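Inverse folding, one chain.
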């Protein structure tokens, strides 16, 4: 079950103006660099915390329903289940009605159960679950501590371009800020 991103975030958790203020940059010459570093830092924080920061749409394909009847999503925090479809015996894609889907976004990991789940008509990737995940659509929805971790990472990269050695990719203070939000592996 490998998640596939369908739609990335519309905004970054830290706006360009906020990042420039944090870096004390008052010109536009390095805007593209700062935006690129901000996106890379968001991806690093998402990887370290195993959580999506800003609302994104993802798709997960399954071969069959879990034996427990409950699908544990590798994406957190869950905002909504957009759809669950399955391939029937004739090869057509059929959507499961929303009233048959029970999503528990508050659990960690998020859980999805389908009442009377139909068996897919093909052996591989016969079930497709599409979800929206993240803390919310706006930068302010992301916890302030994680936004600060992004600022610290970007500042480190901005001031030490190409000077990082070894496996020290994230500053220790940023890692400490991320730690309370880190999801356990499934």
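Residues assigned per position:
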């Amino acid at each position: 079950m490998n998640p596939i991103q369908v739609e990335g975030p519309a905004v970054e958790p830290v706006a360009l103006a906020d990042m420039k203020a944090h870096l004390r940059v008052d010109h536009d010459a390095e805007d593209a660099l700062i935006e690129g570093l901000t996106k890379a830092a968001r991806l690093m924080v998402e990887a370290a915390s195993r959580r999506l920061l800003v609302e994104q749409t993802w798709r997960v394909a399954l071969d069959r329903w879990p034996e427990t009847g409950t699908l544990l999503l590798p994406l957190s925090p869950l905002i909504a289940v957009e759809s669950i479809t399955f391939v029937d015996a004739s090869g057509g894609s059929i959507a499961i009605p929303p009233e048959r889907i029970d999503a528990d976004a508050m659990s960690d990991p998020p859980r999805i159960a389908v009442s009377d789940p139909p068996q897919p008509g093909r052996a591989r990737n016969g079930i497709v679950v599409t979800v929206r995940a993240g803390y919310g659509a706006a930068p302010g929805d992301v916890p302030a501590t994680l936004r600060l971790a992004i600022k610290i990472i970007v500042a480190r990269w901005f001031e030490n371009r190409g000077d990082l050695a070894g496996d020290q990719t994230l500053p220790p203070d940023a890692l400490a800020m991320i730690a309370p939000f880190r999801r356990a592996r499934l």
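The first strand starts at residue 4 and ends at 7. The chain has two domains: 4-53+138-181, 57-133.
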